[in-house]
Design a protein that fits this description.
Layout: E1 7-12, H1 16-20, H2 23-32, E2 37-43, E3 59-62, H3 71-86, E4 92-95, H4 101-108, E5 113-116, H5 122-125, E6 130-131, H6 144-154, E7 182-186, H7 198-211, E8 215-219, H8 224-235, E9 242-243, H9 250-259, E10 262-266, H10 269-276, E11 281-284, H11 290-293, E12 312-314, E13 317-320, H12 331-336, H13 350-361
Parallel strand pairs: 1-2, 1-4, 2-3, 4-5, 5-6, 7-8, 7-10, 8-9, 10-11, 11-13
Antiparallel strand pairs: 12-13
C-alpha cells in the first residue's frame, strides 16, 4: 500500500506584497487538501511573509544575489536550489505568476501536476497540465487575490475564504517604547515614483500630531533613497513623530502595524501588511491600479475597487488616486504625461483625507 503524503509546492518569485497576497490561496489549499504537505518557494527577501504560517511546512528561499555571481558559480547555486526542490518529490506545483522560472523548476523536479498561467514561451506552456485562467488584457478589474485564487478554481474548487494572513509575534517589538495609541505612517516604496509628495505627508503628520494630538510612528526600509525621502518630509514637519525608519526588520514592522490604530501611506507591501492586520488603511495610489492592488479588507468577500481610478473604498480601507484618463500608468507613462510632480500631490484632497483620518480615530482618541 502506498501511504505517501500528497505534497504541494506553491511558487511566487515576485516581491514582498505579491507573496503576502498569496496567503488566501494557502488557506484554501489547506482546506481542500487537509492532509497534504504544503511548501512555498519564493525570493529570500519575501520569507517574512510566509514564516510562521501554520499551513506551510517548508520555505525554499531563492537568493537573487546569485544573479550577480560569475556564470559557473551562479550555475552551481541555481542547480542546488532546484535540486533541493526535486528531492522533495512534490506531486503538484502551483505557479502563481506568468514567469518561466516556476515552470522550469517544476519540470526539472519531475512534478507531474503543474498549475499555472501560460507565458510567452509556447514550449514551456505545453508543460502546464492545469492552465490557470488569466484576466483579460488591460483593466481586468480582478484583484490580485482573485487572480491567485484562480489557481484553486482551475483545480475545480471555489474559495471558502479570501483572508490575507500575516504572522508576527508582538514580542518582537517588546523592547521598543511605543505610544499606547498611534497612527502608523509608511511614506516610501522601493519605487520612489509611488511616493506621495513631501508636503502632503508632512501636513498629514502634523495634522495627527498637532491637531488631533495623536502620535505618529514612521517606518521605512533602510536604503539611501527611502531614508532621504523620509528626512526631506521630516525637515518640513512642525511636529516630531517617532521615526523608526531603517531600525526594524520586516517582521517587526508587521508586529508594530498590528498595534497601530490607523495606517496612512503609499502603495507598498507595508500597506498590505496593515490591511492584513485588520487595521484601517488610507492609501495613496498613482502608478498602480487599485482594482488589482488595493488594500484588501478581510471582512469583505468581494473587492470594492471597481473603477479604473479615482477615490475608492473597500470596507474600512480607502484609496486616493487621480481620476485622470491615463491613470494608472507606469514610470514611463508618468514621464510621457509630464506628471512627475502632480500625480502624487494630494493637496486638493486634503480636507477629505483629514476628515477620513478624523473619522477613523473618532472614539479612540
Amino acid at each position: 500500500m502506498n501511504n505517501k503524503q500528497f505534497k504541494i509546492l506553491i511558487m511566487k518569485f515576485r516581491n514582498i506584497g505579491d507573496v503576502l497576497l498569496t496567503t488566501p490561496l494557502i488557506e484554501n489549499l489547506r482546506y481542500y487538501y487537509p492532509d497534504a504537505v504544503i511548501d512555498f518557494a519564493l525570493n529570500k527577501e519575501c520569507s517574512a511573509m510566509i514564516e510562521g504560517n501554520p499551513n506551510i511546512r517548508k520555505i525554499h528561499a531563492y537568493d537573487r544575489s546569485i544573479k550577480q555571481q560569475n556564470f559557473f558559480k551562479r550555475l552551481i547555486n541555481e542547480i542546488k536550489f532546484i535540486h533541493a526542490i526535486k528531492k522533495e518529490k512534490y506531486d503538484m506545483a502551483i505557479q502563481t505568476t506568468t514567469g518561466d522560472r516556476g515552470i522550469i523548476i517544476a519540470k526539472y523536479a519531475k512534478i507531474k501536476q503543474i498549475v499555472g498561467f501560460e507565458g510567452k514561451n509556447k514550449a514551456l506552456n505545453l508543460l502546464i497540465t492545469h492552465k490557470t485562467k488569466r484576466p483579460k488584457i488591460g483593466y481586468s478589474f480582478q484583484h490580485i487575490i482573485e487572480q491567485n485564487l484562480n489557481a484553486l478554481r482551475t483545480l475545480g474548487y471555489e474559495p471558502i475564504s479570501k483572508k490575507v494572513s500575516i504572522y508576527a509575534n508582538e514580542n518582537l517589538i517588546s523592547s521598543i517604547d511605543l505610544p499606547n495609541f498611534f497612527v502608523h505612517f509608511h511614506l516610501t516604496s522601493r519605487w520612489m515614483f509611488k511616493c506621495a509628495n513631501d508636503e502632503t505627508m508632512a501636513e498629514l503628520i502634523d495634522f495627527c500630531e498637532r491637531d488631533l494630538d495623536v502620535r505618529v510612528v514612521i517606518t521605512g526600509d533602510k536604503n539611501e533613497a527611502e531614508m532621504k525621502k523620509i528626512d526631506d518630509v521630516l525637515a518640513i514637519c512642525h511636529s516630531k513623530p517617532l521615526n523608526l525608519a531603517g531600525k526594524l526588520s520586516l517582521k517587526q514592522v508587521a508586529a508594530l502595524s498590528k498595534k497601530s490604530s490607523l495606517f496612512v501611506g503609499v502603495d507598498t507591501a507595508v500597506m498590505h501588511i496593515a490591511a492584513a492586520n485588520n487595521v484601517s488603511v488610507i492609501a495613496f495610489f498613482g502608478a498602480s491600479g487599485a482594482f488589482e492592488w488595493g488594500p484588501w479588507d478581510n471582512s469583505q468577500n468581494e473587492s470594492g475597487y471597481r473603477t479604473k481610478n479615482g477615490i475608492q473604498t473597500m470596507g474600512r480601507n480607502i484609496v486616493f488616486q487621480k481620476d485622470w484618463d491615463f491613470v494608472p500608468c507606469d514610470k514611463e507613462g508618468i514621464a510621457k504625461n509630464g506628471v512627475e510632480k502632480t500625480l502624487m500631490d494630494f493637496s486638493d484632497e486634503m480636507p477629505k483625507i483629514k476628515e477620513k483620518i478624523r473619522q477613523n480615530l473618532k472614539g479612540k482618541i
